[in-house]
Q: What sequence folds into this?
């Protein structure tokens, strides 16, 4: 487990040696981007109103406070299940050239292919730690597609030491969760056998 | 494009009803900021058995986050869930006729107060009400248990990630309790990982899909360290707890020594030809509160020592 500090804009070279299981802390630009925003870009071919090239997106729906002066404040933010975006992510990376995709849980073969081909990482922020995360958002610099409601709006954030982010897919296309899953399933079968012998309650 | 809106006018409540609503709104706010005592205690225990730096880092982040949420009075997880109430009520509780209106308005007010995320989407019309209430949200499950004037209620914030593993089905008796075990274990490796482990796993056994499903959800209302009064059910709790821990999901599914905070089973009788089984999961951020009122609205909070509203 190595620890890395990345600052946007991120070049391919900055992330080429980062491997699954490593920890990253992010400085710079990170935009929240989830279900409908992915769908709009990939299916409806609407350009993303915020440029995320060489920057980071976060699969998240935050709680935001709107201040009287028209600015916004991050109250609580944390990742949502990344797998919901799997269907779109390969095309999304291709279209936007985003470098860090941050979310929760693993992603699938499409994202793996994209990370390898276009040089990107998928990372996981430990979910449920929404106040800790919000305190590392220094400022909300832009808000677009507000018609989607608070959780789905693209909130463009300036972050400082945002993390810990655990690398789940690296630029080789290696996938931490897929590797773990194989091991988990093996152990599960062994455990089921052990338990079955002891639950013959119907006689 | 037409934008649809959800009509809600705050109800006119009796003075006593208003008082109950205000207490509940305050309590829901507390539940969003602070985990119940049984969960906090268990998380501290589990954090001590992980040895690898990655797992320790995740637990440290969790502890720090809960400390900050309490101090700054903010929701500890951004997904403040869909609100659910599980209630046992005496037939003479004086506010019975106003209860549904009280609960809905309490959620409406707590949403602004806490603040909670807007998590109510009207189905088929597919729009977010923007108020965190909707048709059937909050969901209210009530049993009238006796002739008293008291009421006991669990308040639960059902997050999206921890709601997703929920499933119920009906097994043939030939599949036996082995079928129950397979059903629960498979759910842990498929969806459990994304439900923010360490999990509280609720298993329901009954006669049909919905009785099993409800039992599994009620099981999540029990304390994490509680044990079923039925000897065989308690044995299954224990076996599943060890079994799921040995899968080694670890915090956030990154691998580790433990996967669960506990496994709770609730069971009711079944038809001879069917075994209903259900599973529900609570995430590490298991925001489940309990508040008991008497007829004068004196209340106590058995899961939150030292909290005053
Ligand atoms: S599963 Fe629980 S901790 Fe994780 S994001 Fe959802 S509500 Fe928060």
A:
């Amino acid at each position: 487990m190595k620890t890395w500090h990345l600052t946007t804009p991120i070049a391919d070279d900055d992330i080429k040696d980062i491997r699954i299981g490593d920890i990253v802390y992010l400085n710079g630009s990170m935009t929240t981007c989830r279900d409908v925003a992915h769908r709009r870009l990939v299916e409806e071919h609407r350009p993303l109103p915020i440029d995320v090239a060489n920057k980071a997106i976060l699969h998240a729906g935050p709680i935001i406070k709107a201040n009287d002066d028209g600015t916004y404040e991050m109250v609580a933010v944390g990742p949502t299940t990344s797998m919901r975006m799997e269907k779109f992510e390969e095309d999304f990376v291709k279209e936007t050239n985003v470098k860090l995709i941050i979310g929760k849980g693993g992603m699938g073969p499409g994202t793996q292919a994209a990370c390898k081909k276009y040089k990107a990482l998928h990372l996981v922020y430990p979910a449920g730690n929404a106040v800790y995360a919000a305190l590392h958002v220094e400022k909300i610099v832009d808000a677009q597609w507000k018609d989607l409601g608070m959780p789905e709006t693209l909130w463009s954030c300036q972050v400082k030491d945002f993390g810990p982010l655990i690398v789940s897919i690296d630029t080789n296309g290696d996938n931490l969760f897929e590797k773990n899953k194989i091991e988990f399933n093996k152990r599960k079968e062994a455990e089921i056998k052990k338990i079955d012998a002891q639950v013959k309650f119907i006689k | 494009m037409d934008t649809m809106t959800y009509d809600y006018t705050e109800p006119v409540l009796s003075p006593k009803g208003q008082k109950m609503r205000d207490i509940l709104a305050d309590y829901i706010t507390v539940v969003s900021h602070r985990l119940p005592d049984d969960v906090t205690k268990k998380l501290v225990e589990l954090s001590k058995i992980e040895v690898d730096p990655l797992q320790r880092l995740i637990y440290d982040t969790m502890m720090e986050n809960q400390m900050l949420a309490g101090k700054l009075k903010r929701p500890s997880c951004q997904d403040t869930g869909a609100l659910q109430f599980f209630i046992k009520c005496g037939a003479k509780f004086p506010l019975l006729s106003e209860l549904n209106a009280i609960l809905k308005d309490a959620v409406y007010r707590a949403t602004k107060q806490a603040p909670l995320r807007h998590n109510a989407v009207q189905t088929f019309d597919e729009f977010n009400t923007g108020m965190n209430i909707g048709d059937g949200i909050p969901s209210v499950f009530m049993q009238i248990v006796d002739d008293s004037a008291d009421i006991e209620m669990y308040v639960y914030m059902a997050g999206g990630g921890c709601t997703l593993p929920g499933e119920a089905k009906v097994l043939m008796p030939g599949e036996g309790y082995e079928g129950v075990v397979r059903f629960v274990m498979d759910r842990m490796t498929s969806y459990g990982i994304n439900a923010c482990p360490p999990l509280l796993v609720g298993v329901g056994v009954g006669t049909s899909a919905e009785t099993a499903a409800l039992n599994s959800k009620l099981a999540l209302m029990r304390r994490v360290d509680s044990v079923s009064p039925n000897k065989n059910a308690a044995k299954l709790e224990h076996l599943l707890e060890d079994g799921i821990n040995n899968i080694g999901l670890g915090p956030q599914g990154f691998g580790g020594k433990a996967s669960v905070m506990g496994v709770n089973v609730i069971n009711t009788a079944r038809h001879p030809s069917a075994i209903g089984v259900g599973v529900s999961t609570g995430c590490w951020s298991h925001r489940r509160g309990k508040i008991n009122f008497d007829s004068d609205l004196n209340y106590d909070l058995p899961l939150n020592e030292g909290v005053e509203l």
Q: What stands out?
A: The pocket of iron/sulfur cluster is lined by residues A 78, 127-128; B 77, 79, 159-162, 195-196, 283, 285 (CB under 6 Å).
